[in-house]
Amino acid sequence: MAFRIPTFSGIPQNSFLMKKILSIIVLAQFFCTSLWFATNAVILGLSQDFEIKAENMSDLTSAVQFGFITGTLLFALTNIADRFPPSKVFFWCALFGALANLGLILDFNVLSSLLLIRFLVGLLLAGIYPVGMKIAADYFNKELGTALGYLVGALVLGTALPHFIKVVTIGFEWKLVIYATSGLAFLGGLSILLFVPDGPNRAARTKLNLSAIVDVFKAKPFRAAAFGYFGHMWELYTFWAFVPVILTFHNNTNSISLNVSLWSFIIIAIGGLGCVLGGYLSINKGIKTIAAIALSISGLCCLISPLMIGYASTPLLLLFLLIWGITVITDSPLFSTLVATNAASESKGTALTIVNCIGFSLTIVSIQLLQSLSTVLPFYLVFLLLLPGPIFGLVSLYRK
Q1: Largest pairwise CA distance in the chain
Q2: Region label for 10, one of left (φ > 0), alpha (ψ between -120 and 50) or beta (otherwise)
């Protein structure tokens, strides 16, 4: 399949400017979203330096999610991404997110302060991830699915990046991971501010409209896309959060020593390939079709997870997790494309933000539910609880 750069109004398809805009947005998203799972890559260091118990680690992940939910709700209610230049919103959130992330290295931290820091990081990520998609939607008309495929692929790589940094800095203090992710987030925000002006398709909202977050759901195609996204989100972040736990469980069960950080990076990062490939396949096969195929495969992975996690050999388990890692995220940019294309131009930012808000709210429930039940059920069985997400998403997508 020939490589094609997505188009936007008024710019020739293969122009240098077009490639520059796309690459900068993608790189900035990659750098800034490295803040998301920074603590997951330094769990051992945090637990040793601040005496954090193992059962509290999922709370740190949920604190980010809760902060993101709060931020997206505030952004949606105030229409920030539609009323103000999104590039400036992106920059300021990246800057303060980087500074908040640095708070993790303070020597006097306790669990409550770490939870507050992660909450603030999540709050500021609300001005990065959905706003980045809004910037892309302001530039790209045709093949928006392909553009968002690159963008969400960057999110995936950014999410996995702390694990990779941990691998290459082995033997160094864990705080180096925090310095690196904060520095990258600042550079990402600065690049958007300096090199990505308002897109030609931006239709600025001139006044506050508190009812916008309700109005967008009145359209049936929008609701179908949003509900499909919600089902997808029930599964996605819980799977990502538990990848290191699955690998550690396999190590302990089989008395082996897989490199958990390296394989966590690979399993999460490979999803970026799925995002890009899904975007291109959707051009000819249709966005809805490719999203449904990806959701079906990841749902099947949920279904057979007890067999794979409980009994598979190491090579078979890794192959299974790689397939799950690809398909669990492939549909994300496709659902976001359906959401964006079924929202009014002056409400795209609000629509993307409120859908993210609700979707990420579900991730907290999902993560905490699995964390709680993993203490009372055999560990290899708990991932069956992710299966209702893909089922609900598929039903929503195809319900007449």
Answers
A1: 62
A2: left
Q: Give yes or no for a contact between 41 and 172, defined as CB atoms under 8 angstroms apart.
A: no
Question: Helix or strand or coil: residue 46?
Answer: helix
Distance (Å, whole) CA 200 – CA 370: 44
- Tokens 């209702």 -> residue: 388
The pLDDT score that the predictor gives to residue 212 is: 72
pLDDT digits (tens, 9 = 90+) for 150-183: 888 888 888 788 878 777 777 678 888 899 999 9
User: CA-CA distances (angstroms) from residue 248 to 251, 252, 310?
Assistant: 5, 6, 12
Residue-wise pLDDT tens digits, 24-35: 999 999 999 889
Task: Identify whether the C-beta of residue 283 lies closer than 8 Å to the C-beta of residue 163.
Answer: no
Amino acid at position 330, single letter: T
Place of tokens 């954090």: 52
Contact 157, 219 (CB under 8 A): no
Per-residue model confidence as pLDDT tens digits over 294-337: 999 999 999 999 999 999 999 999 999 999 999 999 999 999 88
Residues 6+ positions from 168 with CB-CB distance below 8 Å: none
From residue 110, give the alpha-carbon distance in Å to each of 41, 52, 121, 176, 367.
18, 8, 17, 19, 22
Give, in order, the Cα–Cα distances in Å from 303 to each of 283, 289, 384.
29, 21, 6
Which of 53, 177, 225, 196 is CA-nearest to residue 138?
Answer: 196
User: Is the whole-model pTM more than 0.85?
Assistant: no
If pLDDT is split at 50, 70 and 90, which confidence band does 8 have?
A: very low
Give the Cα separation of 130 and 201 in Å (integer).
17
Query: Is the sign of the CA dihedral 346, 349, 352, 356 positive or negative?
Result: negative
Q: What is the CA radius of gyration of the chain?
A: 20
